[in-house]
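Progress report, Aim 2. The chain analyzed during this reporting quarter is listed below.
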Amino acid sequence: MGTDARWSAADAARHIALPKRSDDKYTRGVLGVITGSAEYPGAAVLGVEAALRTGVGMVRYLGPERAQDLILQRRPEAVMSAGQVQAWLIGSGMDFANREAAAEERIAEALRQTVPLVIDGGALDVATHVSGPVVITPHYRELARLLDEPVERIAAEPQKWAIEAAQRWGITVLLKGHTTYVTDGVTTVVVEAAPAWLATAGAGDVLGGILGSLVATHSDRVLADPSLLVGLAATASYVHGVAAHRASAGGPLTILDLCANVPPVIAGLVGGDATIVDVT
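Predicted C-alpha cells for the chain:
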C-alpha cells in the first residue's frame, strides 16, 4: 500500500475478516457504540444497523433511552448494556458544542479503555487528546473546525489538510467526500467509489457503523499495528460507496437501502465477484 494509492476491490477484500467455524459472537468482535442524542436518535439507529450488516459479532449500544427504543424496534439483537468491547464508535448524531451530560460520562469511560476508537463529528474534539489507535471521519467543514482553518482552504486542498491533521495529532483521518482521502500522515489512500446521490442525511452515520464493525473485527491487529486503520478505513469507504451505487441504480437512494446492500457487497468482495463490486 503506497502513498496516494487508489483503493480497489482486491484491496478491500483483504481487509474483510471471515468468520471461522470456531468463532462465537465475542470472538467475531464486539463494537461499543456511543452515538445519537435526544435531538438526533436516528443517527444511532443507522450506525447500529450498518455495523450489524457489516459482520460484527455483537453491538453494545449506550445512549439515550429514545434511541435505545428505536434501535430495539429495528434491531432487537443489539445489546443495551455495558460490557467488554473490541472497539468503540463515538460521536455520530451528537452536537459537539452541547453534548448531553450522560454522553460525556460514557465517552470518558470509553476513552479509559485500551481499544481502537472510531470518532465521528459530534466527538471529534476528543480525538486530539487521546492515546491509542484512533480514526476520525470528518467531512471538510468538520475538519476545518477541528484545525481552526477557513472552510474554503480545506475544500480547496482536502488531501493536504487530511495529512496535516493526521500528522499533527498522530491519528488516522478519513476525510469524507465524493473523493475520500484516508491517511495516517505516512500513507495516503484515495477512494472513489461513491455516487453523487450519496450526499444525503445519514450517510456519515452508516459509514461510521461500517468502519466500527471492521475495526472491531480486527481489534487485536490494530492494537499491534495502528497503521492497519488506513486500510480498514479505506475499505469502509469503498463498501459504503459500492453499496450506495447498488442502492441507487442511477437514481436517488435511501440510507436504509444502502445498509441493505452492504452484505451482498461484502459477499462479492470475499467471493471475488467483480460484477458486484466493480464500479470504477
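Residues 129 and 168 are 11 Å apart (CA to CA). The beta strands are 5-6, 30-34, 58-61, 87-90, 117-119, 134-136, 172-175, 180-183, 188-191. These observations will guide the mutagenesis work planned for the next reporting period.
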